[in-house]
Amino acid sequence: MSVSLDTVDGTPISRLAFGATGTGTAEQATPEKDASRINLFRSAFELGINVFDTAELYGGGYSEILLGRAFSRCRESVFICTKFNPDNASAAGIARAVEGSLRRLGTDYIDLYQLHWPSPFVPFEESWHTLTRLLEEGKIRFFGVGNCSYEELLNYEFLSGGKITSVELPFNIAEPEIAKPFLSWACNTEKRIFAYSPLGQGRLCHSLSKVPILLEIFERHSISENQLALAWVMSHPGTVPVFQTSSLNHLRDNLAGASISLNQKEVKELGNVYATPPREIRLSQVRIGSLDGRDGYSSCEEAQDNLHNWIPSPALLAERIRRGGHPPPLRLVGPNVEGLYCLDRYDFGGEMKKYWAWRLAFDENAKVLAYIFDSQRK
Ligand SMILES: NC(=O)c1ccc[n+]([C@@H]2O[C@H](COP(=O)([O-])OP(=O)(O)OC[C@H]3O[C@@H](n4cnc5c(N)ncnc54)[C@H](OP(=O)(O)O)[C@@H]3O)[C@@H](O)[C@H]2O)c1
Q: Which residue minimizes the CA distance to atom 29 of ligand 1?
């Protein structure tokens, strides 16, 4: 087993990155849970991963704290990527956010600092001005953006004089369309695409139907579905999958396929078989409920007021939508006997934010794009 290496401006980075979501918040922490997550981060490192992806948002900052603790004795051996919230995109907001991330991570520099989502309320020039200072001061080494459109990326490239190192987007074998326009940008350059949800939020680990091309590839490479899903993303030059697991066995299993390289014919054929384009559905066909005690909003007024303090807020996402910056398609399950769909439970909070953003931007008869799954997860 070996995770191959790539570089960013001469700095070695592993071709696979580990996502640091799932730590929970400080309030939910127990010594046992913390120890298990820290051990998992260290195991990933021992198995060859040196890129770790976190955010001030994850666990309300607790993910950064655990990551910092995991690597306090070998800080220089890891490449830490963290992100600031779009409501911290102003000059004062970034200055405050970066100090918070540095403190929680227990470090004096961040390798890759990323804008988690574009903010429609702060001109990029203002963010860039502060980020330039942070780069000069050495508090951040590289800067990246997330969840932007290709047009927004080109604009950021222009305004920063080509200093955008990376973009973080959803990309996997079943859902390739969002990242497609970005692939040539990262191909054969020092630019990188950090591909999140490369395992389709876990669905691709079990659900690839066994069509002849897949059976041939399984046999040729002795590869499992999860390994194939990661290998497919890695086959795109400049693309680094960011996967997540809470299981040491899954971690080992995923890395066991890290050295498999698919040829261009296989990549294309697999892409043709598994790409599942999102479908259009009306917002009125989506049933909004609560899940595991997590309440959402029941009206546009509540979503606009955002009393639960969701980040990004539905109002911020709605303003992006009005300006053409669409969030990724909704993830829905259904339909039920009444023809209604419910939100997929993997990132229920994230789906609720997108739903209410669309409702604020348009009325409930608006059509939106959605990935439709026929069954809810266990
Ligand atoms: N920038 C952004 O806006 C953004 C958005 C979303 C995510 N991200 C980043 O991307 C990372 C990963 O994304 P993700 O969690 O959405 O999707 P993912 O990595 O595609 O899927 C994670 C899911 O796959 C399961 N899994 C992993 N390996 C498996 C295996 N070998 N067999 C069976 N199941 C397996 C995990 O369950 P187990 O725990 O049981 O293994 C988990 O449920 C996040 O941690 C975060 O760092 C960034």
A: 250
